[in-house]
Specification:
There is one protein chain. This protein is an alpha+beta fold and about 600 residues long. Among the domains are: about 190 residues, Serine Threonine Protein Phosphatase 5, Tetratricopeptide repeat (Alpha Horseshoe); about 190 residues, Serine Threonine Protein Phosphatase 5, Tetratricopeptide repeat (Alpha Horseshoe). It has 19 helices and 14 strands. Strands 1-4 form a two-stranded antiparallel sheet. A two-stranded antiparallel sheet has the order 2-10. Strands 3-9 form a two-stranded antiparallel sheet. The longest helix is centred in the N-terminal third of the chain and has 26 residues.
Length: about 600
């Protein structure tokens, strides 16, 4: 698949036609539509400004582990049941009129968020701080927040839909929708960077647009978020699917290097605390069962957000009282991606067959197919419940998971509460969680490990893996050094020096998969790398049966139909596409969804 921007229809209207422009009559923060007030009156009071500013935040995305079942990291337990989102997805049963992912209506939501930001920016410029009892710093911060939010919303849109219209002014009632157009991916990224730079140009002062989140301000935009948005946006812009020549690798490396340096020099760092034996298996596990701390008193890695989850219930094991479903069950392909701890080598280097049932074992890795879960990357034990995994901590003498057929947590195809693949999700799951005490962790939207990896991804392509690049005052780092920082926190060996770009790319992409598993990144990564057809068509699990003192391991396969070209992008909502056709006479739908 190679979606080129010139094959996409131009001139996209954003679907902000009359019905989309109008907010609910029940929305008190849209007084321009209720006939009782006007936007100028709202922006004439401190309360009105603060409330309207809050509406700009209403559309902030939340990451979740359930998207992993729409890529090769997991097979959803509901995928076997008719009329589920996942059965439709796996069976290629969706069309533009009937489509559902895991995130509701991003087209409408994010454009509505952009509209709110545009209205806010158009009106806050007329506000005199002292007239409404704000400080100049507070007004400046609100400017920056709106710019950063608009950038965040545009980033979410292009990840899902590709080229989208750039709208930086509030539409009026006489707007000519026929004049709107779909702008190339790279141009939208330019707008995202410009918005972030507009935010970062605001003073870094107390209660202004700061690096710090103060008590009672959880979820607020910060300077670190603006840098993280820039980093992700430019990394996508130079990826194989979206590289339209708008950005050079030099630009991408500079932006990513600056984001990394700025965050590091302002107190962000990888989480490295070691857990007590009865809390978590390792540092990586502890980080993900720890709720985000935006004040950075304890968690200095999280840049933005964290959706608190209930893995024990929504992606848990039947043996846990109150569990509802097994959710996204990790695939054997994900298990195969975890390297061996002692050697840093992959246990499996590929598959001899298209269905992935005949793996190529790396003899140099130390992998034992009779004991496949021994001696693996510590992140494996923090992310996946496998047959024989300790169910609770401390591990000595703890009950173990049994996924053999017929066991309480055994593999079946007939019950949404049991695994499809022989594995369950452990990441985010605190072993103490149950229906009376949910202490599971949270899925981060933006964190420092991603910034390191984004830098590595662009730097190795420009300079190779080993060349150190100056990214800030007295700070130099190579692509390999950035990856190794992430691996060191995990307890893994560094990448070997002297790798070719091709060899480094293969190991880098695997590292990104492992580090960011179940954080929504893999879904978008396999698309922007243009490898969806390689990763999505055939997936496997592991059927395990007792065999004397050991077990027999048999790979089992799942075939999906959700690997074709159209699945690189979401379809535009069909009602919006119809409006666009009415206005322009042109079909505006994404390729394959017409």
């Amino acid at each position: 698949m190679n979606i080129r921007l010139d094959t996409m229809k131009k001139g996209l209207i954003i679907g902000l036609s009359a019905g989309f422009l109008c907010a609910s009559c029940n929305d008190l923060l849209e007084p321009e539509n209720d006939g009782r007030s006007t936007i100028p009156k709202v922006f004439a009071t401190k309360t009105g400004i603060g409330l309207y500013r809050n509406t700009c935040y209403r559309y902030v995305p939340t990451a979740h582990y359930n998207r992993s079942a729409l890529c090769d990291d997991a097979q959803e337990a509901d995928g076997n049941f008719a009329n589920s989102l996942y059965s439709y997805w796996y069976g290629n049963a969706y069309n533009a009129s009937f489509f559902q992912a895991t995130d509701g209506n991003p087209w409408g939501n994010y454009f509505e968020g952009i509209r709110k930001c545009n209205i806010f920016l158009a009106n806050i410029r007329h506000v005199v701080a002292e007239d409404v009892m704000f400080t100049e710093a507070e007004v400046s911060r609100m400017y920056a927040e709106a710019y950063t939010l608009r950038a965040l919303y545009y980033l979410q849109l292009i990840k899902r839909y590709g080229d989208v219209p750039i709208i930086t002014e509030a539409y009026d009632i006489e707007h000519d929708y026929g004049a709107d157009r779909r702008e190339p991916f790279g141009k939208v990224v330019r707008q995202i960077l410009a918005d972030c730079d507009s935010a970062l140009a605001r003073p870094d002062v107390q209660r202004g647009f700061s690096w710090n989140v103060f008590y009672g301000e959880a979820g607020i935009m910060t300077r670190a978020i603006a840098h993280a948005i820039k980093s992700q946006a430019v990394t996508y812009a130079v990826s194989p699917l979206w590289n339209d020549g708008s950005f050079t690798l030099e630009e991408a490396v500079k932006i990513n290097g600056d984001a990394l340096y700025q965050c590091l020099s302002h107190g962000y760092e990888l989480f490295t605390d070691k857990p007590k034996q009865d809390i978590a298996q390792n540092t990586y596990a502890l980080y993900f069962i720890t709720r985000p701390d935006e004040q950075r008193a304890y968690d200095k890695e999280t840049i933005y957000g964290g959706t608190a989850v209930e893995v024990w219930s929504g992606a848990g094991m039947p043996s846990t009282p109150g569990q509802l479903k097994a959710g996204p069950c990790p695939t054997q392909e994900l298990v195969d991606s975890y390297e061996m701890l002692a050697t840093g080598e992959p246990p499996i280097t590929g598959y001899r067959d298209e269905q992935h049932l005949d793996p190529v074992i790396n003899a140099a890795s130390g992998y034992d197919p009779e004991n496949p879960y021994e001696g693996r990357d510590p992140r494996f034990y923090a992310t996946i419940y496998y047959n024989g995994a300790p169910r609770t901590l401390p591990a000595d003498g703890a009950p173990t998971v049994n996924t053999c057929a017929g066991a309480p947590d055994g593999i079946t195809a007939a019950d949404r509460r049991t695994t499809r693949t022989g594995y369950y999700l452990r990441k985010y799951n605190n072993w103490k969680s149950d229906r009376d005490n949910n202490v599971d962790g949270a899925v981060r939207l933006l964190r420092m490990a991603e910034i390191y990896l984004n830098f590595a991804e662009t730097a190795y392509q420009l300079h190779g893996p080993d060349v150190e690049i100056e990214i800030g005052r007295n700070y130099r780092i190579s692509a390999r050094g950035a990856v190794d920082a992430v691996r060191e926190r995990a307890g893994m060996k560094p990448f070997p020096a002297g790798l070719s770009k091709e060899a480094f790319e293969k190991k880098y992409r695997n590292e990104r998969r492992v580090e960011l598993a179940f954080e929504e990144h893999r879904f978008f990564d396999v698309r922007r790398w243009n490898i969806l057809g390689e990763t999505e068509h055939y997936l496997t699990g592991m059927s395990i049966a007792p065999n004397g003192a050991g077990f027999t391991y048999t790979r089992i396969g799942f075939e999906r139909a959700s690997w074709g070209d159209k699945y690189y992008l979401y379809p535009l909502p069909q009602n919006e596409a119809i409006k666009m056709r009415t206005h322009t006479g042109v079909n505006w739908q994404n390729p394959g969804w017409e």
